[in-house]
Write a structure and sequence with these properties.
By secondary structure, this protein is of the alpha+beta class. It is built from 31 helices and 26 strands. Helix 5 (82-115) runs parallel beside helix 25, helix 23 (650-676) packs parallel to helix 27 and helix 25 (699-709) runs parallel beside helix 28 (783-806). The longest helix has 34 residues, at 82-115.
Length: 884
Amino acid sequence: MNIANLPIAEVLTSLKASEQGLNSADAERRLREFGYNLIEEIKGKPLWIRFLKEFTHFFALILWVAAGLAMFAELRNPDEGMWQLVTAIVGVILINGFFSFWQEYRAERAISALRNLLPQNVKVMRDGQLQTISANLLVPGDVVLFSEGDNVPADCRLIQASGVRVNTSTITGESLPKARTAAGTDIGSALEANNLLLAGTSLVSGEGKAVIFATGMHTEFGKIAHLTQTEGEAGSPLQREIVRLSKLVAMFSSILGLIFFGIGFVIGLPFWDNFMFAIGIIVANVPEGLLPTVTLSLAMATQRMAKRNALIRHLPAVETLGSTTVICSDKTGTLTQNKMTVKRIFSDGVLYPPDVVDACAINVQLLRNAQYCHSLKRSIHNSQVTWLGDPMELALAEFAKNMNDFGEAPLISEIPLDSERRRMSVVIEHSGELWLYCKGAPETIMSLCEHVDLSGVQTRLDDTARRRVSDAQEEMAGRGLRVLAFAYRKLLINEIPAEKEMVFSGLIGLQDPPRPEVPEAMERCRTAGIKVIMVTGDHPHTAVAIAREIGMVKTENPLVMHGEALRKLTPAQLQIALDSPEILFTRVTAEQKMLVVQALKRKGEIVAVTGDGVNDAPALKSAHIGIAMGIAGTDVAKEAADMILLDDNFASIVNAIEEGRAVFENIRKFLTYILSSNIPEIVPYLAFVLFKIPLPLTIIQILAVDLGTDMLPALALGAERPDRGLMQQPPRPSNERLLSWPLITRAYLWLGMMEATVAMTIFFFMLYQAGWHYGEMLNKTSSLYIQATTACLAAIVMTQVINLFLCRHPRESSLRFTLKRNPLLILGLIVELTIIFAIVYTPLGNMLFGTQPLSAEIWLLMILMALGMGLLEEIRKHFVRNRH
């Protein structure tokens, strides 16, 4: 018989389970038998196909063509050195391909590892105790507890349910939540049975207890496993920009090579010299190390963000963060510590702090309200009883027990909290009677009360009493306290519990102090041109008090918009209201929060939104950057988000924005560095064909720079820490190009031309001091020619050493940045110098790269000229800073 059609007792019997759960030994045995509760991933592209792809991208194809042409030339005209060129180019392709694949693989593993920082955990009954374990360890027969926002990790049959509604869209495609109960049903289909919870769905509201009957690939979700995986994330704007840049540079180099091949043909250059020249132009322009450097830089950025408690779930979030202009933030737990303590009590018509009152002065029903009206779960571990749940409810229950512990009372039923009602109720049995206790926002509770309890005597809740309650609420909210109202009613036998005709028992004000780091984070947002808007369900006075304390509000009259007022605004009115420099939204619902986000997007803002509940998911998805809470956040919120705060701290958002800005700037830094060396690699070939001089630089020496000396220093620039001035600038436009005209001008026409000047000067110095005359062609194997090309190569490397420091910032002086800020920079310098010295002074380096040792005076000259280049760039930076 279908498990949905069986009574609960028979369901448990058939699974050899009980409501107290399995014992550990039985659970371990079943885990070995049924396996881990995992859905097999749909296979993406095989590893070998992804590996081969690294050798067929646009850059690689151009180099393959160059190698093929060189091989053809070698076959047609042997002994011209073309085989060395073929070997070098193929070596470049292989090294680049292996390196790119390895870095992409490492980045993929790194992101996977970061995601595993937040495994899905579930509350399960084991050995008669409530425990929290990984969802992977669940087995058939386990009894699991669910609450609003939880994902369902396996197929389950409900055995207890209170207000349970489930989002089944991942299974059925239906967007509307479905009610679920523990009662039996005649429906045979698992997809339609209203007493089953299926893996892959999530609880929109309510609470329940269920027994698992299928795990892993045996679930309905497992049977349609293709629903568990997407086809992979689309390339981010930055990745697309890199591809665009790659094609642009590669096409430019190819066209340039063809043009100068034609020029060489017209001026009568020998065919094979001209052919080598054209290939050299192409190779010199292709920044072979760009793609692997970008890949690793992004991977390192995600790692740095994780260390600063921001877990990136989607790569586009890294770059979008840098453009954020508005942050819509929750209050509780994000701006505050989410550590509630009772600070004010309104009982029997008197308002006073709890430290000057004893239990006798507080209404007994108010204390019972606070002790019993909650959805906390009791957990026993090592004989220690602890309660799990909302910090506010924990604070209330602890306060009430300290005042007057009424002992345990059976929970009969519960009407769970939801964002529309803004209250929750429980039905408790004590002294043989049933009582309904309710708590929630004062305005929602007071509208349902007809009497007030004054020292155990119920009197009519008239206008005077209501005004007294309202005044107390305003006074507490003005102090920044979160105010809750409490009410109760005695139920008649067989009466259906209803929140009506209740007796008001009092108010309790709880303090949730701001996080100490938030005021500084607010100031950083202000200087960075980022607007912060509080969107909260709290009372307006509470929101304003906290906003003032953390520095979000500094003026006398900020715009405070109530959810009801927001609901009545037209889209145009809301957009105009958002122009206010300081604005807070209070008592808002999930739908209203999403309306705020959509209005900001229509205004052209780049919006980041925080959230933790199921009701926040629409706003998180609607925002450019959805930010879920890692500690207090529900599974649904985390899945809807682009970023997860591991510490639920607003300051971590600001840190992540800083890192996001730094990623974009760092890519520009190493792009400037890489492109700068292209000019001193191209100019020797242009001089060779236009002025009929010996070729100052061989192709294999170009590759020694692009894939040898430049690689690690470029990577070090990608690991630069965020500059202190980065958060003192306005957000960059989201459509800003990576390869901007200022960058091209600085890299090609300024830094590159200075490097080319140094390299060509050193080349000619070597020739002229040995007696060379213009017009004289040298044999490629002559010692003078080899030494001159070696000097040209070494000069490019030395200017790149200086350029490494110059590229650390486009405007600020290089002397401002110490090496301690970036240890990878030191390693890059050591490797760069080690490689060039190995090329110049070792027999193997001499043989592979066609070099010879250089004298000390040549090194001194090139170092002085490189320092001169650095001085000129520092002068330029000085004028730029003064102009700004």
